[in-house]
């Protein structure tokens, strides 16, 4: 009995875990960071204000999901199960916000004209004009929305043959990055621009064959990293879907993703994102060597219009990819309200 009591009094060695207290503390810090990030994203804290790098961080949510999954597994392997549990729970919540972008959605029963739209940010007019015209020609694009359109780029596009392919245009070309323009195979009628914007955002009615006309809004919002409040205000001033009659397409460089409350607020007015509708909502449209690629260019349609196709295309000379969307316009009484 004395031998047994002596054995019980001997302190059993602690289970060894790689890294000791330092790794345990690091796991705790990472878990707190993930928890804070998840809380901000879940409650849409950026809807109440923010600053430039805050907006950039929110756009990284898909990467945070992937990183959280990897770190959670690693913490389990090295024996830090409590922080791993919290981290994995946060990651699952964030994944539930991201995953709808890779799932296809049912489309409305639109039976009218199919229209192919291309949006291209020309990066201060430095994009390869001939390549862009080739994209238009080879893909039979019918409406082209351009951002950062300069007078020099207009001349280069015309020399490459754009005006022959698309004889109708509404151009607001300017030096630098503030110009924009719309070109089309269909007649265009210019409307008032989007108000209170830093860059040009032309708007035009598109005279489509059939019972419905279209309207296109060429979007170029100021980057939030330069001015968060202005960026949020410009997205707020984008027009709502039309309640009846012609269908409105809002196309271009929003400098925003689904992880920004300002962009989700636009969607919630009654728009749908073509890429997200077709399961391509995580395909990046912009990249820089020092920043992970992001999805900040979009084609938005109303709930009457069907998304039929989507592609992201290389555009040499630009830091954006061109995005191409096939949409089908409803063919019914143009005064009927949307479904």
UniProtKB/TrEMBL annotation:
Domain Endonuclease/exonuclease/phosphatase stretches: 118-320
SUPFAM superfamilies xrefs: DNase I-like (SSF56219)
Pfam family, one: Exo_endo_phos
Keywords tagged on the record: Endonuclease, Exonuclease, Hydrolase, Membrane, Nuclease, Transmembrane, Transmembrane helix
Keyword set includes Transmembrane helix: yes
GO molecular function: endonuclease activity; exonuclease activity
Annotated transmembrane regions: 22-40, 52-77, 84-103
InterPro entries per UniProt: Endo/exonu/phosph_ase_sf, Endo/exonuclease/phosphatase
Gene3D superfamilies on file: Endonuclease/exonuclease/phosphatase
Protein name: Endonuclease/exonuclease/phosphatase family metal-dependent hydrolase
